[in-house]
Amino acid sequence: MHAPWPLALLVALALLAVLDAGFRILWHPHPSRLPEQFSPAYLDAYVDGARNERPVIVLGDSTLWGYHLDANAAAVAQLARLEPHRAFLNLSYEGGSIVNSVFALRLALAHGVVPSAVIVNLNSKEFNPADSAYSRLQPSLETDVAPLFGPRDRGRLTLLPPPTLADRIDAAVSRVWAVYRERVDIRVAIFGFDDAAGFVTDVLHRLTGESARADRLHQPTAEAFAGTYDLEPPAPDNVESAYLRELRDDLVRRHVPTIAFLTPTNHALLHDTIDDPTYTDNLRRIATAMRGPSIRVVDLDRLAVGPHFIDNDHLDATGSRILAARLARELDALTP
Prior knowledge:
With 336 residues, the chain is an alpha/beta fold. The protein is 51% helix and 7% strand. Helix 5 packs across helix 6 (139-145).
């Protein structure tokens, strides 16, 4: 005899409630770096996990995050192995920028994280208004920090469009249903991709050799990065420059020991473009603007040589090890 549908519905809802409760208890992400795709809820949980650790907060872009590298080979993971007595909260990610670093730090502070130190990379290409991350926040970070925006932020930043009715319904369901709220994170944790299509496509490309062929064909050229670095001095209304000053002021006001480093750049690849006095002058401006009490600015623009780069500014595993070793020395000198 079939159970009446109301009973079946109640059983289904009870099972969903048990699953959701178990997920809330067991799901505590603490990776060495954020995944490529993550939800606001995942970011919140990741930051909350560091509240009692007094971590070194790492802020930055894909150079620190480890573009095209396994998580364990990325600079921050290698740094953590060199400094096992320290906790790290790695808030670098692909598509980072100075603007993102400012609000990632503010998010951590708003969650009650008390940093023992901060490491932040200053990538001169991100001051270029043509850069994809210029004046834009990563969407999940923007969702989280929107309550922290003031009128000046709303005037400067390129923000997401206002939420639609579907967005508001999605947000309402997410507030009460944890598994639904972190569906992207679950898919990424299981498959490494935020959808099944990406996973299946990646498997097929690996089986057919398409991935290997594409890697062989991907040889970075100087022409591919034409226009990446703006050699003109930043305009008075440059958004990244404005937030660089705010980042400095936030750190100085809180007396946070900080290492700010100029991002290693592949001069062998970009020699004809950036080996120019104007490029050096721009680096000097960035360094000068960031300096302050308790902030050490380190010029690592020429730290690595051409063979240790994947492209213009992304380091391979060896280059990331070189960067990690240098940051470890700087960190030990800053906070023994």
